Amino acid sequence: MRPALLIGAGLSGLAVAAAALSLVWTPWDPAALAIGARLQPPSTTHWMGTDHFGRDILSMLMAGARSSLAVALAAVAIGAGIGTPLGLAAAASRGSLLDATLARLNDLIFAFPALVTAILITATLGPSALNATLAIGLFNIPVFARTARGAALSLWTLDYIRAARVAGKGRARISAEHVLPNIASLLIVQATIQASLGILAEAGLSYVGLGAQPPTASWGRMLAEAQTMVAIAPHVALFPGLAIVLTVLGLNLLGDGLRDALDPRLRGRLT
Fold this sequence. Notes:
Layout: H1 3-22, H2 57-92, H3 97-110, H4 114-125, H5 129-155, H6 159-166, H7 171-207, H8 219-226, H9 235-262, H10 264-270
């Protein structure tokens, strides 16, 4: 068994389970204010304490997992859904106008810092979880396009692809039936990496007030609200920070473990 895969799956699964559970139950209402119980330390009543408004931190973390994962996974879906077909099309027509245009667009997008441009987009369109998703998803498109193109190019020179072309199959059909299944493992690993980066990006946007808006809970906004209270109530910043770190770490370990498990060259070396 691969420890990285197990640890990554466990940490990622914990975040997903917390997000799913928050749909039907949280210990307290994450939006309920209780000024008389503000800044309480962890106790049997509030396992992770309360914030400066008296809100239960554990309940807010569970609800925040839902919004953070939703933004990150939706952004990955946008990037993979648009970028992968573009990359496959560019590889199938290597050297064409489509290939050259896609390469230049990728270079143009990668030339700008992703988070700074995401802040610009959300500031222009307005702060919301939807606009944050679109901004993060935009930068996932060239990542998946370049990954799919690079992996697919190496397959188009193989004999079974040539056999499919001789059999009369078109480039689109070959890409869907023969190329995509053989690069799916690489795309899955890339998706876990982009999901972890998406969580960091969502936290950053929420930290500056451009992500999910109140009363929707968000890990990034929890950190922003806690930054002035670290000295008197460190638990208010500690737990959302740990949630971000552990979830991102889990997704990265999951990606490394999946790469080792799905890559036949590494699989033979590790077994």
